[in-house]
Design a protein that fits this description.
alpha/beta, eight-stranded mixed β-sheet, 21 helices, globular, binds coenzyme A
Length: 533
């Protein structure tokens, strides 16, 4: 192995250790003391419950684990994991969305990022046709931020709106209540298709005992106001009474045991492993983010048989191949590829090729994987006069209208309009995965520093206080730090700009799961509106 490849590998393995560390913080808020506190109440950590909920020996595909770090809310800097665990697992063979409050994080209350994460999980479930299980244990809205979590579309009420509409579409909404569900939060129990409550752990009421006392003078315990016994025997607001968390988990599994099996809306070929080892990705990808890449080698490290059937491989060398297109099988599922290559700058030829390929895959009803490592479209008069604007717009239109499942994987720069053309968040890919090499921002730190410096220089000159060389350099460094920091996968993951930051070795399993889940619904016919050509 060359020195450069060994250095790359060591670098990325170390970066992924940093990811492990951050994920550990997300998974164990409050450490052992918090686990002991739960145990005293007869409760298990939330991921332990989830592992029992899904089929034995299967994996829980947890989403958005970096959510909520560094948010700097009033008096709360970090909300580990956003205070809520979301992810996809199999129950009796069916992929199911699981949404579970983590009561170790501020009593599972909802911050803006908690809501965003809850809503994102519901959106995936609705789009892919997944049943939902809610493990409810929450103090409701994080009250100091009520104006930011209560009244708007996408705020607290939207959780229940989504439950109602999903159940109207035939998607089961099952709630296991294992803690407080007060005020608006009570609806997570009452809106469910079936709700399970646990004796002396679960409570659900529109007003808790203190509010009841203040409003009516009635003095009553939480248990007598809205405990499991009250709602399963008297009010009928919940359907199943259980004594322990384990019993409740078994009950939820039983409720979902007779769901019709899901089926895949594409022909699945026999699965075969890649011939190129996954370590290749670690060795191929340069530590420097703006250095060019050989994306074909990356694709070979996760495609079945390492086989990439390339489309228009020889077209416009040096320009057309800054995007490579083609098909692979991924655990037997055919997938169309649009992948940034080399420096990833999108020339007219690459944009045209990508648009053509998107349209072809849509006609064939083959799902699309966008592998993003592009700093933007080519600028300058030659490119403008050749029509980079309109061909870029065609690509964006094709991406927007593509009716097939689309997934984005970011393995490098992700800037400017290339974020649009390569199916960034605003283009609503079914799933969006980042890696530790992803850098998502409007421009790179270096470019942003120069643009902002030119503005600052003009301003300062007009004030009669021109910048010294030292001031210019300090300004540049400050801007580079800010922009590069905000592009980092930790920053983006904290804000849910991706669904998970994957390790390179997780790419194959995760993409296969995501395509499978995205193909549970039939694919519509294509329609693209007004392409320019
Ligand atoms: N808003 C903001 N912070 C809240 C909160 C809320 N709605 N509910 C709980 N918290 C905070 C507590 O202040 C505490 O913070 P701290 O760790 O910094 O001291 C932390 O969350 C844990 O709460 P605690 O009451 O100690 O946990 P618990 O397990 O004993 O009780 C509840 C959990 C949910 C039963 C209880 O906190 C409660 O009744 N909360 C209020 C519920 C409510 O009325 N919500 C209405 C909003 S819709």
């Amino acid at each position: 192995m060359s020195d450069a490849r060994a250095e790359n590998r060591a670098f990325w393995e170390n970066e992924e250790l940093k990811l492990d560390q951050r994920v550990y913080e997300a998974m164990w808020p409050g450490g052992e003391a918090a686990v002991q506190r739960l145990a005293k109440l007869g409760k298990q950590p939330v991921r332990q419950l989830i592992q029992k909920l899904i089929d034995p020996g299967t994996e829980f595909y947890e989403l958005s684990r970096l959510a909520g770090f560094g948010m700097h809310y009033p008096d709360v800097d970090d909300v580990p994991c956003g205070g809520i665990v979301t992810g996809i697992g199999k129950i009796y063979g069916n992929w199911t969305m699981i949404i579970a409050n983590d009561s170790r994080v501020k009593a599972g209350t909802y911050f803006p990022i908690t809501l965003k994460k809850h809503m994102r999980a519901q959106a995936i479930a609705e789009r892919c046709g997944l049943n939902c299980v809610y493990i409810a244990d929450s103090g409701g809205a994080f009250l100091p931020m009520q104006a930011d979590v209560f009244p708007d579309d996408g705020h607290f009420g939207s959780m229940f709106y989504n439950m109602a509409r999903m159940s109207a579409k035939g998607l089961k909404q099952i709630t296991l209540s294992t803690g407080g569900n007060t005020a608006g939060g009570a609806y997570i129990v009452f809106m469910a298709c079936q709700a399970v409550m646990i004796d002396k752990l679960a409570y659900s009421f529109l007003g808790g005992p203190p509010l009841v006392k203040a409003a009516t003078g009635e003095v009553i315990s939480a248990e007598d106001l809205g405990g499991a016994r009250i709602h399963t025997q008297i009010s009928g607001g919940a359907d199943h009474f259980c004594r322990t968390q384990d019993e409740a988990i078994e009950k939820v599994r039983e409720i979902l045991s007779l769901e019709p099996p899901q089926k895949l809306h594409i022909h699945r070929y026999a699965e075969s492993p890649p011939m190129v080892p996954v370590e290749t990705i670690y060795e191929e990808l340069p530590a420097k983010i703006h250095q060019g890449i050989n994306v074909r080698a990356v694709i070979q490290a996760f495609a079945d048989d390492s086989h990439f059937i390339e489309y228009k491989k020889n077209y416009a060398p040096g320009r057309g191949d800054n995007i490579v297109t083609g098909k692979i099988r991924l655990k037997g599922i055919p997938v169309g590829i649009i992948a940034a290559n080399g420096l990833g700058i999108i020339f007219v030829e690459a944009a045209r090729k990508a648009t053509e390929w998107i349209v072809r895959c849509c006609q064939e009803k083959v799902p699309l994987l966008f592998i993003q490592s592009s700093p933007g479209y080519m600028v300058g008069s030659e490119s403008e006069h050749m029509g980079i604007g309109k061909y870029g717009a065609d690509m964006v239109r094709a991406v927007s209208c593509a009716q097939v499942p689309r997934i984005q994987l970011v393995i490098g720069p992700d800037n400017g309009a290339a974020n649009y053309g390569m199916c960034g968040r605003a283009y609503r890919p079914h799933f969006l995965f980042a890696t530790m090499r992803a850098r998502t921002s409007v421009m790179s730190g270096r470019s942003a520093a120069e643009v902002l410096l030119s503005i600052e220089e003009r301003k300062r000159a007009a004030e009669g206080k021109p910048m010294s060389d030292g001031e210019k350099q300090a300004f540049r460094l400050q801007m580079i730090e800010k922009y590069d920091g905000e592009a980092h996968p930790f920053f983006c993951g904290a804000r849910l700009l991706n669904d998970r930051v994957l390790k390179f070795r997780e790419i194959r399993d995760w993409l296969a799961m995501a395509f499978e889940v995205s193909l549970l619904k039939p694919i519509d016919d294509p329609a693209f509106g007004n392409l320019r050509f």
